TrEMBL record:
<dbReference type="InterPro" id="IPR003848">
    <property type="entry name" value="DUF218"/>
</dbReference>
<dbReference type="Pfam" id="PF02698">
    <property type="entry name" value="DUF218"/>
</dbReference>
<feature type="transmembrane region" description="Helical">
    <location>
        <begin position="12"/>
        <end position="31"/>
    </location>
</feature>
<keyword id="KW-1133">Transmembrane helix</keyword>
<keyword id="KW-0472">Membrane</keyword>
<dbReference type="InterPro" id="IPR051599">
    <property type="entry name" value="Cell_Envelope_Assoc"/>
</dbReference>
<dbReference type="GO" id="GO:0005886">
    <property type="term" value="C:plasma membrane"/>
</dbReference>
<feature type="transmembrane region" description="Helical">
    <location>
        <begin position="38"/>
        <end position="59"/>
    </location>
</feature>
<dbReference type="GO" id="GO:0043164">
    <property type="term" value="P:Gram-negative-bacterium-type cell wall biogenesis"/>
</dbReference>
<keyword id="KW-0812">Transmembrane</keyword>
<feature type="domain" description="DUF218">
    <location>
        <begin position="80"/>
        <end position="236"/>
    </location>
</feature>
<protein>
    <recommendedName>
        <fullName>DUF218 domain-containing protein</fullName>
    </recommendedName>
</protein>
<dbReference type="GO" id="GO:0000270">
    <property type="term" value="P:peptidoglycan metabolic process"/>
</dbReference>
<dbReference type="InterPro" id="IPR014729">
    <property type="entry name" value="Rossmann-like_a/b/a_fold"/>
</dbReference>
């Protein structure tokens, strides 16, 4: 119940649902023109800010600048954990093609990190959700094998629904053994906080950087997507803080 409640509440803070709610609010208050003007102005400002490179970069850079790309060699017996990020069972062509763009970038970096060590184990995670027949971890594992990782060097956590559960499954499986954590750069600060909060020893290996330079006056859907991903992380950090403070 708490898992789905978190999903629903977080959606209310995403750019498009938020702007739509503000516009619906305006429709309900058409008789009060002064309030409608204020709400419409707020909606326009939010949309312009989040679709501009200035706004999206302001939101993403503070997250992505916390950890650098990791090119350090890993000692023998290493663990590399790649956090999941969705796939589509219906896409033909094999596991690599079924992965979302974010999942593919994460897995590619995970394979690179795997190759930086000796006798490494690659850990992939993620459940299937209600719309998928196959757990995401299974698709990630199949794609990793297509990249040349032996099946016996891969561990899957197919029941982990979010980052908190991914950390819990890892703790149950390997304890406090050091490992290299691979996820998107915007997601890395929250992931590190979660894994360290579980008493684990992650070493950050961020990828999927989305902060991009652009014309300040150009409003773009890609900027809106970057802003949404950053807002998702800020809301997640707030939820994490409230959850553990309440616990």
């Amino acid at each position: 119940m708490m898992f789905w409640l978190k999903k629903v509440i977080s959606q209310l803070f995403m750019p498009i649902p938020l702007v739509v709610l503000l516009l619906l609010f305006c429709i309900l208050m058409l008789r009060n023109r002064k309030r409608v003007r204020v709400v419409l102005a707020v909606a326009v400002v939010i949309l312009v800010f989040l679709t501009s490179s200035v706004g999206s970069n302001l939101l993403t850079a503070s997250l992505e600048n916390q950890y650098r790309v990791n090119n350090q060699a890993i000692a023998a017996g290493c663990l590399v954990m790649v956090l999941g990020s969705g796939h589509d069972d219906e896409i033909p062509g094999g596991a690599v093609h079924q992965l979302s763009a974010t999942a593919l970038v994460r897995l590619t970096e995970g394979v690179r990190q795997y190759q930086l060590g000796k006798d490494c184990i690659l850990i992939v995670s993620g459940w299937g959700g209600s719309a998928s027949k196959t757990p995401h971890a299974k698709i990630m594992a199949a794609a990793a094998m297509q990249f040349g990782i032996p099946k016996d060097r891969i561990i899957t956590f197919p029941l982990a629904r979010d980052t908190i559960e991914e950390a819990q499954y890892l703790k149950w499986d390997v304890g406090s053994y050091p490992f290299r954590l691979v996820t998107s750069a915007t997601h890395m600060p929250r992931s590190m906080a979660i894994f360290q909060g579980q008493g684990l020893s992650p070493e950050a290996a961020p990828t999927d950087f989305i902060t991009r330079q652009g014309y300040w006056w150009q409003l773009d859907a890609n900027n809106l997507l970057s802003s949404q991903r950053a807002i998702h992380e800020y809301v997640g950090r707030l939820w994490l803080k409230l959850k553990y403070e309440s616990d």
